[in-house]
Amino acid sequence: MLRVAVPNKGALSEAAMAMLAEAGYVQRRDRRELVMLDEANGVEFFYLRPRDIAVYVGSGTLDLGITGRDLFQDARVDHGAEEVMGLGFGGAGFRLAAPVGRFTAAEQLSGCRVATSYDGLLSRWLEDQQLADVEVVHLDGAVESAVRLGVADAIADVVETGNTLKAAGMETFGEPIMQSEAIIISRRGERPEGISRIMRRLEGVLVARQYLMLDYDIPKDLLERASALTPGLESPTISPLADEGWVAVRSMVPAADTNRLMDDLYELGARAILVSSIHACRI
Ligand SMILES: Nc1ncnc2c1ncn2[C@@H]1O[C@H](COP(=O)(O)OP(=O)(O)OP(=O)(O)O)[C@@H](O)[C@H]1O
Ligand SMILES: O=P(O)(O)OC[C@H]1O[C@H](OP(=O)(O)OP(=O)(O)O)[C@H](O)[C@@H]1O
Ligand SMILES: [Mg+2]
Fold first, then answer.
1. 180 lines ligand 1 (CB under 6 A)
2. Around Cβ 150, how many Cβ atoms within 10 Å?
3. Which residue among 12, 95, 165 has the greatest number of ligand 1 atoms within 8 angstroms of its CB, and so is best to mutate?
4. Ligand 1 contacts CB of residue 75 (under 6 A)
5. I want to staple 28 with a disulfide (CB 3.0 to 4.6 A). Which of 36, 50, 143, 192 is the partner?
6. Known activity regulation (predicted)?
7. CATH number belonging to the domain at 2-90+181-193, selected among 3.40.50.920, 3.30.460.80, 3.40.190.10, 3.40.50.410
């Protein structure tokens, strides 16, 4: 039985459960349930605080977990667990911020105090940047209030829309410390059977979300130029048509590029250009 950790609340919880459900796994219905057994798929899901998931997977108690890249790097369990796949949701930057106009670069933090809930991540980054004389102040949350209340000169926190910072009269400065998203982590070393299957399924969900299926007809002599526009994942499927001067082409395309590709194909001479969604796939 594969044992998998899923965030029980917070920014990643709903999207993680939705993705697992889309991949065909049974998820809990009641927020109070701590464990859910999906017998048919041979997986047991444990609903845990996202911050703790790295600890469970890193110590070898659980096989796989979904957490945030920033939380994983903050937990300092890299020796026991590793990031195996980005999941394309829960995207946010981890950034320095301070009251508007106070700082413009990280180097100016010399001798200052920086409040954060991610002190492992911040301390290591400060070391890498050779900013040895910056004091890290640990807070559990709502760090945006730390400067106003006098316990820090700047903060390092998760920034998604930037609305929380703005409301606190603050702005980011310097380069982002890191870019985070939801990730799958696995314990290092031998992987039990079943891990590749769950990862293939989640990859299928990701691809089905990010790609669309494009069909079109094109005169044979333009096929090479059309194929260059829609190379597909492996290569496009080419089928004969009753009219021997034409062929039908079928290819997966990134959803974000679809309208531009349809315009380009039409201008090239393609006709009957159809787009359909991909319900599920295995790549
Ligand atoms: N708008 C957001 N706010 C907070 N975290 C976000 C946001 N968008 C994505 N995330 C990600 O979600 C994870 C944090 O989740 P969560 O908010 O549940 O943790 P937490 O702040 O430690 O918990 P809590 O706020 O319940 O004490 C991080 O990986 C973070 O990058
Ligand atoms: O850029 P935004 O879209 O405004 O989102 C970022 C904010 O959301 C998170 O707080 P959360 O709600 O997790 O509260 P917390 O600080 O108590 O953890 C994070 O710590 C920021 O404060
Ligand atoms: Mg939070």
1. yes
2. 8
3. 12
4. no
5. 36
6. Feedback inhibited by histidine.
7. 3.40.190.10
Q: Is the CB of 158 under 6 A from ligand 2?
A: yes
Which residues make Cβ contacts (< 8 Å) with residue 47, sequence separation at least 6?
5, 6, 7, 8, 28, 33, 34, 35, 36
ipTM for this prediction:
0.95
**Phi and psi torsions of 66, nearest 5°:** -105, 125
Q: What angle do CA 25, 31, 34 make, to 5 degrees?
A: 70
**Nearest ligand (C-alpha, residue 7):** 1
Q: Say which CATH topology domain 92-179 has.
A: D-Maltodextrin-Binding Protein; domain 2 (3.40.190)
Q: Which fold has domain 211-277?
A: Alpha-Beta Plaits (3.30.70)
Same fold yes or no, 2-90+181-193 and 92-179: yes
Q: What is the mean pLDDT of the chain?
A: 96
Confidence of residue 283 (pLDDT cuts 50, 70, 90): confident
